[in-house]
């Protein structure tokens, strides 16, 4: 069987003459196949070499950094890292205030054209970022690495339920491409991909999945949860599904097992942001994540700004290594994650055990802040109490939580009491619990949905 490489020349079948962009991605993949096994100290040394080039460029060509970076790039070895840790963190508010002063006034040859991206994330306050073609090439290499890590059959059908744009990928047909997108299709001959708008009612999504019968599904965790639970109720399920790829939101505890039990499919999660790119990919052998050290320096820092030990939870700080068009040096993405130890798979890429989400959506109590940690089991118990189609919990006051529900019908008094009792047991007796029934529970412009929000 000929390997499914995509030749750019119709008269050349084997070995495939891959396109120029595909060859560039392949050259990175050749290196990534080796660097993933490097020990931590070798990865750190290579990161330092690239960081020094990034800092030198930023100091000379990016107005925001001209007086911010000091002499870090002049240092070597451990002195470099000591000075690095003294650099101030870059907040989302810094990025918003800096505006164009974070854009490079000159880009080296070979970095290509620029593309713009606007990301509102979970805060509703947009960040304007620019990315170079070279950065997108690194992004493509990480995309293909993730496919290869998880052994996907490129001849299969890939379905995506994530598009949220008005009028795009509408039910009943959605949209269709002949391949999985340029990152993969530049190198491999793939099967088709299909897409459906994430705002489509869940029963219609199940109907679409039943008709399309994909091998792989890409969607958000909250959407997957609704699909799997509705599938269990109706008995309708995708029959050929091998894996579900989750993106953009926090993966709730227990959702992997729920999907495996009901659909027989493994969940593979990815951690990324639009402005910083891939931060971590799920390990092929376990459920934890490997930081993508070849494309970004990711630090997990405690409240004192020190690196977290395995098992400790801290802030996620990221420095993309190759986007000289808009350097983000020690950028606080607003998330918390738990650091992990060395992985049994043998890869030297650092580990994070789990991603906990944005700290502005932590539950505030008199004793301090804590994560709500709504597990799949928790949600299953809630949904068993009443005919709930969708839910969200909002801390509206220091002592008040609003349970927002969309239901199949008006709740009975017994059902309402059951929901209130569930919420008191979950969040604590110190909170007043209010029920609300809004006409709509909206996703963000990028299609994200948060099941718990703190409005304080």
Automatic annotation (TrEMBL):
The record's SUPFAM superfamilies line, in alphabetical order, gives:
Acetyl-CoA synthetase-like
Q: Which UniProt keywords apply?
A: Nucleotidyltransferase, Transferase
Question: What superkingdom heads the lineage?
Answer: Bacteria
Pfam families referenced in this protein's UniProt entry, alphabetically: AMP-binding
Q: Which residues form the AMP-dependent synthetase/ligase domain?
A: 205-318
Q: Which InterPro entries match?
A: AMP-dep_synth/lig_dom (IPR000873), ANL_N_sf (IPR042099), CapK_Type1_Caps_Biosynth (IPR053158)
Kindly indicate whether the keyword Nucleotidyltransferase belongs to this entry. Answer: yes
One GO MF annotation is: nucleotidyltransferase activity
PANTHER family, per this entry? Answer: CAPSULAR POLYSACCHARIDE BIOSYNTHESIS PROTEIN (PTHR36932:SF1)
Descriptive protein name: Adenylyltransferase
Question: What organism does the UniProt record list as the source?
Answer: Reyranella soli
């Amino acid at each position: 069987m000929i390997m499914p490489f995509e030749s750019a020349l119709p008269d050349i079948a084997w070995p495939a003459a891959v396109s120029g962009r595909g060859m560039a991605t392949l050259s990175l993949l050749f290196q990534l196949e080796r660097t993933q096994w490097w020990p931590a100290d070798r990865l750190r040394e290579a990161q330092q070499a690239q960081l020094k080039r990034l800092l030198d460029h930023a100091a000379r060509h990016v107005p925001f950094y001209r007086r911010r970076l000091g002499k870090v790039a002049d240092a070597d070895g451990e002195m470099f890292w000591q000075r690095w840790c003294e650099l101030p963190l870059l907040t989302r508010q810094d990025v918003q205030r800096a505006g164009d002063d974070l854009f490079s006034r000159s880009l080296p040859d070979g970095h290509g054209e620029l593309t713009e991206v606007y990301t509102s994330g979970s805060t509703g306050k947009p960040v304007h970022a620019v990315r170079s073609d070279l950065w997108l090439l690194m992004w493509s290499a990480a995309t293909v690495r993730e496919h290869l890590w998880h052994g996907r059959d490129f001849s299969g059908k890939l379905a995506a339920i994530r598009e949220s744009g008005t009028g795009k990928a509408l039910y009943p047909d959605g949209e269709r491409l002949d391949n999985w997108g340029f990152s993969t299709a530049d190198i491999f001959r793939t099967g088709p991909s299909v897409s459906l708008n994430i705002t489509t009612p869940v029963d219609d999504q199940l109907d679409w999945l039943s008709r399309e019968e994909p091998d792989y599904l890409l969607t958000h965790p909250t959407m997957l949860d609704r699909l799997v639970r509705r599938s269990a109720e109706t008995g309708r399920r995708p029959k050929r599904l091998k894996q579900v790829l989750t993106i953009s939101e926090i993966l709730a505890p227990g959702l992997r097992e729920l999907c495996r039990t009901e659909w027989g499919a493994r969940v593979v999660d990815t951690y990324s942001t639009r402005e910083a790119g891939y931060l971590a990919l799920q390990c092929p052998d376990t459920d934890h994540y490997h930081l993508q050290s070849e494309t970004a320096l990711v630090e997990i820092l405690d409240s004192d700004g020190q690196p977290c030990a395995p098992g400790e939870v801290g802030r996620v700080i990221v420095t993309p290594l190759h986007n000289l068009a808009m350097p983000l040096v020690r950028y606080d993405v607003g998330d918390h994650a738990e650091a992990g130890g060395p992985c049994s798979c043998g890869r030297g890429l650092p580990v994070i055990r789990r991603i906990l989400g944005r700290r502005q959506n932590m539950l505030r109590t008199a004793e301090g802040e804590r994560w709500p940690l709504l597990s799949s089991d928790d949600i299953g118990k809630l949904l068993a109490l009443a005919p709930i189609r969708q839910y969200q919990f909002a801390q509206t006051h220091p002592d008040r939580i609003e349970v927002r529900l969309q239901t199949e019908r008006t709740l009975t008094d017994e059902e309402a009491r059951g929901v209130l009792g569930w919420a008191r047991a979950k969040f604590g007796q110190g909170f007043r619990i209010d029920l609300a029934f809004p006409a709509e529970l909206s996703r963000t412009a990028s299609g994200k949905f948060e099941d718990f929000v703190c409005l304080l």
